[in-house]
Design a protein that fits this description.
By secondary structure, the protein is mainly alpha-helical. 60% of the residues lie in helices and 3% in strands. It has a two-stranded antiparallel ribbon. α2 packs antiparallel against α3 and α3 runs antiparallel to α4. The protein starts with a helix and ends in an 11-residue tail after the last strand.
């Protein structure tokens, strides 16, 4: 893992240098340095603005006792985007803008989500089809009175007989 990060950081640095040299040959060294400084200042301004908005959204959700949802991911993407904009280099500025701008933020969020899911070995499960079968002698929709069918604290539970058709992916604990 550490080797991959070092290789990616080296490739990123080479890309930044190559783009900087290309821009300098196109518009001149002085204008390139000024553009790099301007994007750094723009990064600080955007990070402050987006950070304030993200904190307000998180605060409103906390006051309303709602989960943070997209507000948390917006705050994280704003921080990463601002940090990338502050770093010198035009490649990091482009990636930072993708994280900061609201129209492109869902694209970045989806790409990061897919990357994390692949890294963690998660896959999207398709629909699960259940074919119901009747069991002779079992009343339909009745409350089970057997001890084996009792839930928490001995409360009776509904028993639904059925058969699962197709592959099932365990998605973790089931709601009670």
């Amino acid at each position: 893992m550490g080797r991959r990060i070092r290789v990616l950081a080296g490739l990123w640095a080479l890309a930044e240098i190559a783009v900087f040299v290309l821009v300098a040959s196109w518009i001149g060294v002085g204008a390139t340095v000024l553009a790099a400084l301007a994007t750094t200042v723009l990064g600080w301004a955007l990070m402050a603005r987006q950070g304030t908005r993200a904190l307000e959204a998180l605060r409103e959700r906390a006051v309303a006792h709602r989960p943070p949802g997209r507000a948390a991911s917006n705050a994280g993407l704003g921080a990463v985007g601002g940090a990338l904009m502050v770093l010198p280099g035009f490649v990091s500025d482009a990636v930072g803008l993708l994280c900061l701008l609201p129209p492109t933020r869902p694209l970045v969020r989806a790409a990061v989500g897919r990357g994390l899911a692949a890294r963690l070995g998660l896959s999207a499960a398709g629909p699960v089809r259940v074919h119901s079968t009747r069991v002779p002698g079992a009343p339909s929709g009745a409350t089970a009175s057997r001890a084996s069918a009792s839930g928490a604290f001995g409360a009776p539970v509904r028993v639904i007989e059925g058969e699962v058709a197709g592959d099932v992916v365990d998605s973790g604990p089931r709601p009670s």
